[in-house]
Amino acid sequence: MLQYSSYFKTLWEREAREHQTIGVVSHTVTTKACGRQSVWHRATVHSVYENINNRGDGGPSRALSTMSLSVRPARRLTSRSITRSQSFTGVNTNDKPYRSLSVFSTPGVSRKPSRASRMFTMSTKSNPPPKVPQPERLDQVYEALKKGLHSYLQVHQMDSDSLSRQMKESKRNSRLGFLYELDKQVKVTERYIRRLEFHLSKIEELYEAYCLQRRLRDGANKMVKAYTTSVSSKEAKESLAEANKGYKEYTENMCMLENDLENHLGEFHIKMKGLAGFARLCAGDQYEIFMRYGRQRWKLRGRIELNGRQVWDSEDMVFLPLVSDFLSVKVTELKSLANHVVVGSVSCETKDLFAALPQTVAVDINDLGTIKLSLEVTWK
């Protein structure tokens, strides 16, 4: 025991001499990091008797003394914004970049396409294609339609020339606002003319395709007649079946093209002007007018007042032009609940209504022409 005591005493004296030169050192190191000062404190603490009794083999413990180093940067209390995490599981500080969403950004919304303005409003009627084509009738309607489109082009071209001439004449002595309005009208008219030209080219394209299918159909019809009168053999029967198939296909194509052309005919805007009669119209009389145009119907009622003025419950109607149908007009005089007298019924041709300017139409209701129906028709 005395030997161990002298050993520990010698060890203590040696450690004491070292700590006299080193001691407990505490100094401050000031560094500048990321724009702020941090104070670092270092302390050395030595324990002499640490792990003295932790001897496993009966000998002295030679474990080195441990140094505790505490590094703490001096923090400044500054207000820092905290933002909600994008995953909604915590908070994020400004240390980490995040995607900034615009305040006015709106998500993409699937919208229905707006209805574009259409030249000669293409018909959205649900009339099915005809089962039997009528090429002769379509030729007449096409010629009338083409003539009407050319008259439309001529009228608007004259308007454009007149506006351009007026703009040139008043360019020096007119106000700037007046010239601006004239220039705007000229541009609108020119755009309308281009749309008319495009519509006319579309009509011509459909008619050319229709004529091609008609020629093919006529050829297939001749082949069917030829194979029908020929000797019945296996090859003749197969050829006849092919000819019948082609004839049916060309007929369907003609019906589809006829329907497409019908959808490009525009609209008839009809305005009721009244009935005209010499001695037939009296004050207090009531009349019912029924118009039928294909599947389209228009029924209106009116009466004759004391001053001769006519009052009708409906005055305007829009009809979609058809290729093969005629406008049917029926006029009935309403005398009592069960006593109605049919004044007259007539069918009217509509291909003459393709005109650039509004026109007033007088329809003879009866055979003698004593009662006429006056209508104002505008083709758009």
TrEMBL record:
Region annotation Disordered: where it falls in the sequence: 105-135
**Pfam families the UniProt entry points to:** PL48 (PF15903)
Say which domain of life the source belongs to. Answer: Eukaryota
Q: Which InterPro entries does this UniProt record tie to the protein?
A: FAM65_N, RIPOR3
Q: Where are the transmembrane segments?
A: none
Task: List residues of the FAM65 N-terminal domain.
Answer: 82-380
Assigned protein family: Belongs to the RIPOR family.
* Protein name as catalogued: FAM65 N-terminal domain-containing protein
> Organism, per UniProt?
Dissostichus mawsoni (Antarctic cod)
